[in-house]
Amino acid sequence: MNLDFTEEQQMLRAAARNFLTTEVPKKKVRELEESEKGHDPELWRRITDLGWIGLIIPEEYGGAGADFMTLLVLFEEIGRNIFPSPLFSTEVLGALPILRYGSDKQKQEILPRIAHGEVITAFALIEPAGTYEPSSIAARAECKNSSYTINGTKLFVNDAMVADYFLVVARTAEKPEPQAGITLFLVNAKNPGIKVEVMPTIALDKQCEVIFSDVRVSQTDTLGEEGQGWKIVEGVLEQAAVLKCAESVGAMEAVVDMATNYAKERVQYGKPIAAFQVIQHYLANMSARTLTAKGMTYRTAWMVQEGLPCTLQVSAAKAWVNEAYKFVTERAVQIHGAIGMTRDHDVGLYYRRAKAADVIFGDADFHYERIAQQLWPSIKPRSSG
Known about the structure:
The protein has about 375 residues and is of the alpha+beta class. It has helices at about 5-25, 25-35, 40-50, 70-80, 85-100, 105-115, 230-265, 275-305, 310-335, 345-355, 365-375; strands at about 120-125, 140-145, 145-160, 165-170, 180-190, 195-200, 205-220, 220-225, 265-270, 270. Helix 5 (about 85-100) runs antiparallel to helix 6, helix 8 (about 275-305) runs antiparallel to helix 9 and helix 9 (about 310-335) packs antiparallel against helix 10. The protein is globular.
């Protein structure tokens, strides 16, 4: 296993860091968080020109054909600067499953448009039950006369208000096993019967409620085989969890740097607060957790790229990174004092993002239970989480 960056990955990391530092300062981040769309179409055009949106898409569909580790490098830099955009929703939760499970027609129609920045996608999975378990899927898709009618409510759908297509998880048949009878659909956001409303969240990250009322789709709009959708969902969640870990690691590194620099500059009782042992221990623990999180994330991403079984490793990484990200930002706020809790200070932006990252794609408890199920398969999954 070689985790060293290639020359191309080093160039991507340097270019991404330079672009985000220059073009997306924290003032811009705050503006985007408070804007109606949650992203800047001009920045979307520019990152399209940089090849970010089509990074993982093969060249035959207009992309760069990069591998999963290269995508991880990009999202680590995006996390370092907490850049608000629909890139994760479109490339990770849209392009990757379409690339792997879509029909030739779907790939030819959608992937080039994604690579060229013409299409934004959103992944509609979570329902009012609030879990990542198949038993929580209550949205129904009934088949009649070679078409489906979708009814149901989805929550926490990132970037739904700007999406051109939804990947919708719905139940097409009732089976004894909850994971059976679930199908994915590629739904045009302009279809009648779709209502989108942005939900207020601590991170201002544009998560939405999406209500599907008698939404008609054709049989050709299914992604993968009918009734086999939960296998696709599991694959999407594993890849997304690892890349969300990469985002969090980038953010943690930025926060450690921020807190370290502040501790060296802030003077109390005649000396920098970095001279006090308690602050030194805070910074040491923050750094140790960040380094551990990075190592776990990179090793797991390599396993994903190589197609190795890694459900346990994904859950171990996500559980650790969830807790580590919260720890690092909480300690950073303490080091900064009261100013760290204000919206005017950058560390507060990361603190709020850590709270949001804790639950997306499964909180620590959810992943601890998945680890237990891998170690002891007879353990039944909990009904909520």
